[in-house]
Amino acid sequence: MEEAFDIMKNDLEEDKTYLQDDDAVRGYFPTILVALYIRYRILNILKDRAMNGKYSVNGVLMELSKVYMITMGARRILSEVTKKAADIEEVIGMKLFPKILGS
Q1: Distance (Å, whole) CA 2 – CA 74
Q2: Whether pTM exceeds 0.70
Q3: How confident is the model at residue 22 (pLDDT cuts 50, 70, 90)?
């Protein structure tokens, strides 16, 4: 629990709540818990595949954040998928970047 709190405070930089009403606070904590779950899920995948020495959670998130979906009218396309992002997709074993996007 202390490790999770430390990650929430330092990595997610969520030790400061500037929320002014109860509804904002009620939405804030579930959002942080989802972010924390995603970070631990990525970390566990990297550990299971013995890749946590090569990739960090922050590095994975940063590399994947470079890929965008662009909508042009009814057409959707992905921005360029970097070699590193494609390698991460393969390492984590998920189909993140489909070749053909549905409309």
Answers
A1: 47
A2: no
A3: confident
